[in-house]
Amino acid sequence: MSAEVTTVSLTGGKPTYLLAEYDSPGQCMKAAEKLRDAGFTRFDTHTPFPVHGMDHAMGMKDSKLGLIVFAAAMTGLTTAVAMITFMNGIDYPIIVGGKPAISIPSMVPVCFELTVLFSAFGTVFGMFGLNRLPQHHHPLFESDRFRAATDDKFFVSVDYRDPKFDFDKTKDLLETASPNHIEIIEDIQS
Fold first, then answer.
1. In 3D, which of 182, 156, 184, 162 has the Cα closest to residue 54?
2. Is the overall model pTM greater than 0.70, yes or no?
């Protein structure tokens, strides 16, 4: 059975995405696996809830966010140690009760707090950067059918800029997973 193909056009823009709509997460995952196995790299799945195993079906690698957060945490720790050492040992050393100016036990709270603070900033800004946020416009938002992605439908979008993209072959590949509907998304801003 061949899915109905329609075009969502924004006043004659260039085609940017091929969007396939599915009824179940299994169909969506099957389509993602087929795209991955065919060598596609510029595609995404859109589901109303997290689907276990979808990242593997898409061939996604582990996130780089952990490395970003670790680097930020080490920067925070280094900053705390350098700041305390400079302030207490060099800039304004005050010896109280014979205690050394640079004392590790007194450094722990500040080191902990700056490590957590820098980690939080690394997480937020790293996530924004990796997810390319904020993104105020996306061509998929112009599709009326795509609104069901937050309700009860499952979508696979394939970017026209993918090196493996050929309209007829990609459409046929998506149809092997039995989509309800396939749309060509055009965007005037691309």
1. 156
2. yes
119 neighbors 76 (Cβ within 8 angstroms): yes
The structural domain count of the chain equals 2
Task: Indicate whether 102 and 54 sit together in one domain.
Answer: no
CB 167 within 8 A of CB 35: no
Running along the chain, 190 residues long, what does each successive block of 10 average in pLDDT? Answer: 69 82 95 97 96 95 96 98 92 83 89 98 97 88 91 95 94 93 82
d(CA 97, CA 95): 7
Overall size of the chain counted in residues: 190
Q: What range does the domain containing 155 cover?
A: 11-62+144-187
Q: Please tell me whether residues 58 and 85 are part of one structural domain.
A: no
DSSP class of 1:
-
